[in-house]
């Protein structure tokens, strides 16, 4: 299957993408991984992306599309893939259609993870990271440490990242509504969208998504 996963920041796309890709035996292709791989391997697209990032500028769609196209053409993606973070806007969605059409392929489904804006803010703004080991992550509501501000695992100080502040999260949501949400209507016009309520246990959300794909 060829699937696009969309949803606002904090909807759990990365978590669901990993589970779904494993269940479907297809590669999980995330924009973040594409950028890291191309930059670390020193590809021409990676060098181009890095030059924009180092200058504090947005990476042009053409570079992102090029990276995604290269990745989708790898042998492990021959029988399908799950795209996470791409396409991010209408021009990327149109480009994806053209890439697939040229290869005689098409998308099978678009899964829209739906979560209320206030819940997104609560999820992200409540995160606390350990200064000693950033893999130790807590949440003031959902996974509170035993002692406030102290990591249960190593005793390090817990802090809120700058990009997890409520103001930053609401700005990221505004960007999502303006740039990414329009692709949902674009794909609805093609009859591809299944809306998945993204509240609840991770396994339950995965089950909802799998049920939608079976239909």
Characterization of the model:
α1 packs across α9 (202-214), α2 packs across α3 and α6 (117-125) packs across α7. This protein is an alpha/beta fold and 215 residues long. β5 and β6 form a beta hairpin. It is built from nine helices and eight strands. It has helices spanning 13-24, 31-41, 44-54, 61-72, 90-102, 117-125, 166-180, 182-188, 202-214, and strands at residues 2-6, 28-30, 81-84, 109-114, 127-130, 137-139, 158-159, 193-197. The model has no long low-confidence stretch (mean pLDDT 94). The strands form two sheets. The chain has a five-stranded parallel beta sheet with strand order 2-3-1-4-8, sandwiched between helices. A three-stranded antiparallel beta sheet has the order 6-5-7. The longest helix has 15 residues, at 166-180.
How would you summarize this macromolecular structure in one to three sentences?
Helices cover 48% and strands 15% of the residues. By secondary structure, the protein is α/β, with parallel strands linked by helices. Strand 5 (127-130) and strand 6 form a beta hairpin.
What are the main properties of this structure?
alpha/beta; 215 residues; 5-stranded parallel β-sheet; single chain; 8 strands
């Amino acid at each position: 299957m060829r699937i696009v996963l969309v949803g606002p920041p904090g909807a759990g796309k990365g978590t669901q993408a990993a589970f779904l890709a494993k269940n479907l035996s297809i590669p999980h292709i995330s924009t973040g991984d594409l950028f890291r791989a191309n930059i670390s391997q020193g590809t021409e697209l990676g060098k181009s992306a890095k030059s924009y990032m180092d200058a504090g500028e947005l990476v042009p769609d053409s570079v992102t599309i090029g990276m995604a196209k290269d990745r989708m053409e790898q042998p492990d993606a021959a029988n399908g893939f799950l795209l996470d973070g791409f396409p991010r806007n209408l021009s990327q969605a149109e480009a994806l259609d053209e890439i697939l059409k040229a290869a005689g392929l098409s998308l099978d489904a678009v899964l829209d993870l739906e979560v209320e804006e206030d819940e997104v803010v609560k999820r992200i703004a409540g995160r606390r990271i350990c200064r000693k080991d950033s893999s130790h992550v807590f949440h003031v509501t959902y996974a509170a440490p035993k002692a406030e501000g102290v990591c249960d695992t190593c005793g390090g100080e817990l802090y809120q990242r700058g990009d997890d502040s409520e103001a930053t999260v609401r700005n990221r949501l505004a960007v999502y509504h303006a740039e990414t949400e329009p692709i949902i209507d674009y794909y609805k016009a093609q009859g591809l969208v299944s809306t998945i309520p993204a509240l609840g246990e991770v396994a339950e959300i995965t089950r909802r998504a799998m049920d939608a794909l079976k239909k």
